[in-house]
């Protein structure tokens, strides 16, 4: 970066030297193997700031791995990953932590902290990581819990909530860190069918009302169609087709996409 | 064999003294074993083997040698190196150290039982490693280990009479001392036997209520 300031001004546009205007996430030649199995094969793709991108494709096609690499839960074997013009991989540990601050993730299994009440699940990181005062963090947490329809559940433990409610808390918890990027990893896959709609409605709201960049792995094709600006179809460790949802869903060009959509729709 | 209530009455003041010492040894020994065990567990997770290796060897050694031998070592050998403490202090250290090599295994299982998703969620929220341990992992691990730790407390209670051998006058020590003077064995030994059962039972009740509250 040519910038002389040690910390970039968040209001300033991404440095033009490293990224085209608006580009937030970039994968260059990223390869990931698990043993003999190549999950991602020299993958290139980028996501513009504020876009909602859905990754679809058969299981084992590496969609979740992409989210996990962005959250630095899994390391790629080769290639580079850049977020907002800053290197996430390869990079030094401290720089990684700095970049990671802008990324939030919601997991398939919710992963709420069972030893903390709902409110503290949402305030824990803002207080300890962002340095917010307890009052500030709680006010914000209550707002977010209101947004996900759980304002009355602040003082219960996660185990007292349904799966759908837990997932909505997990969404509030991720948003409390004010991430630029929200990663959604099959967030409705572990839910009973009747609880799915509530979670998806919350996410639709967030997609509509914020400028947060969303990367979403899902099998809910209607949801993908609703919220996505772009859909990436994965197969065999590569993006085989991408485009706006109307085109991908109505008029897929690739035979594998047609086959996949035929099976899930 | 005659049962003499007068002998019981005569023994009781000594019994209370012994009971206090037994409970002191038990409570302090337990606290020491809980703390040290956690220290061993955490040290065994340090990335450098230069820490893990000595800790592993030392705790393996302590776990696999008899507590009685360790007590003798603490009480009779250490003073030769200029380390002298009271007999009870040495007894507490002996019990605590010995049992810490068991509690460390309990903690390890407890920590490994915390789902990997909890670590991942903490990382996704950018929680520092130290905070992840203190706020997320350990509170969940402790909950899991309470039953097993409680069993070791009861086990330790039953090992407290070993302290008699290093001159600590806990319950058995008091009973033996009394017997040697009064030539009455049945009553003092029976009294402390009953006392051990009562303490074990109360401890297990306490433990069960603690488990219910935590789960």
Question: How does this model look, in words?
Answer:
The complex is a heterodimer of chains A (265) and B (215). Chain A has 265 residues and is of the alpha/beta class. Chain A is 35% helix and 25% strand. Chain B is an all-alpha fold. In chain B, 80% of the residues lie in helices and 0% in strands. Chain B contains 8 helices and no strands. Chain B has helices spanning 5-43, 49-63, 67-77, 87-112, 116-124, 129-159, 171-182, 186-214. The model of chain B has no long low-confidence stretch (mean pLDDT 93). The A-B interface holds A 71-73, 97, 100-101, 103-105, 107, 109, 111-116, 124-125, 128-129, 173-174, 177 and B 115, 117-118, 120-121, 123-128, 131, 135-136, 139-140, 143.
In short:
The complex is a heterodimer of chains A (265) and B (215). Chain A has 265 residues and is of the alpha/beta class.
Secondary-structure blueprint:
The complex is a heterodimer of chains A (265) and B (215).
Chain A: E1 23-34, E2 37-48, E3 52-56, H1 63-70, E4 78-83, E5 86-89, H2 93-100, E6 103-106, H3 118-128, H4 134-147, H5 163-175, E7 181-185, H6 193-209, E8 213-217, H7 221-227, E9 230-235, E10 238-243, H8 245-250, H9 255-264
Parallel strand pairs in A: 3-8, 3-9, 6-7, 7-8
Antiparallel strand pairs in A: 1-2, 1-4, 4-5, 9-10
Helix pairs in contact in A: 3-4, 3-5, 4-5, 5-6
Chain B: H1 5-43, H2 49-63, H3 67-77, H4 87-112, H5 116-124, H6 129-159, H7 171-182, H8 186-214
């Amino acid at each position: 970066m040519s910038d002389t300031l040690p910390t970039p001004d968040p209001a300033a546009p991404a440095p033009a030297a490293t990224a085209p205007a608006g580009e937030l996430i970039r994968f260059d030649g990223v390869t990931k193997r698990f043993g003999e199995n190549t999950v991602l094969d020299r993958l290139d793709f980028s996501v513009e700031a504020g876009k909602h991108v859905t990754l679809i494709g058969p299981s084992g096609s590496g969609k979740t791995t992409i989210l996990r690499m962005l959250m630095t839960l899994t390391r790629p074997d080769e290639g580079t990953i850049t977020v907002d013009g800053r290197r996430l991989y390869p990079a030094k540990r401290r720089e990684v932590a700095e970049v990671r601050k802008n990324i939030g993730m919601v997991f398939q299994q919710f992963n709420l902290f069972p030893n903390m009440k709902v409110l503290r699940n949402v305030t824990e990181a803002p207080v300890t990581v962002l340095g917010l005062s307890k009052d500030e963090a709680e006010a914000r947490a209550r707002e977010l819990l209101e947004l996900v329809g759980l304002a009355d559940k602040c003082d219960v433990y996660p185990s007292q909530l349904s799966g759908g409610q837990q997932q909505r808390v997990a969404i509030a918890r991720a948003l409390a860190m004010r991430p630029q990027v929200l990663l959604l990893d099959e967030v409705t896959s572990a839910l009973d069918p009747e609880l799915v709609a509530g979670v998806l409605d919350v996410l639709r709201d967030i997609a509509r009302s914020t400028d947060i960049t969303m990367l979403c792995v899902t099998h809910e094709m209607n949801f993908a169609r609703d919220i996505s600006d772009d859909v990436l179809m994965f197969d065999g460790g590569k993006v085989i087709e991408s485009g706006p949802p109307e085109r991908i869903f109505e008029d897929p060009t690739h035979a594998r996409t047609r086959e996949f959509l035929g099976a899930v729709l | 064999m005659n049962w003499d209530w007068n002998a019981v009455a005569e023994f009781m003041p000594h019994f209370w003294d012994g009971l206090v010492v037994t409970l002191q040894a038990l409570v302090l020994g337990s606290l020491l074993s809980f703390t040290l065990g956690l220290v061993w567990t955490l040290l065994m997770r340090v990335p450098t083997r230069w820490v893990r290796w000595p800790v592993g060897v030392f705790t393996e050694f302590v776990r696999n040698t008899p507590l009685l031998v360790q007590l003798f070592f603490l009480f009779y050998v250490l003073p030769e190196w200029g380390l002298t403490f009271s007999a009870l202090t040495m007894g507490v250290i002996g019990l605590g150290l010995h049992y810490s090599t068991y509690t460390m295994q309990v903690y390890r299982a407890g920590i490994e039982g915390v789902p990997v998703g909890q670590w991942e969620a903490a990382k996704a929220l950018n929680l520092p490693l130290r905070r992840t341990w203190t706020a997320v992992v350990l509170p969940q691990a402790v909950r899991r280990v309470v039953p097993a730790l409680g069993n070791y407390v009861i086990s330790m209670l039953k090992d407290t009479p070993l302290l008699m051998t290093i001159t600590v006058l806990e319950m058995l020590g008091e009973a033996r001392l009394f017997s040697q003077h009064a030539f009455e064995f049945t009553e003092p030994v029976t009294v402390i036997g009953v006392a051990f059962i009562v303490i074990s039972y109360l401890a297990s009740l306490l433990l069960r209520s603690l488990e219910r509250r935590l789960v």
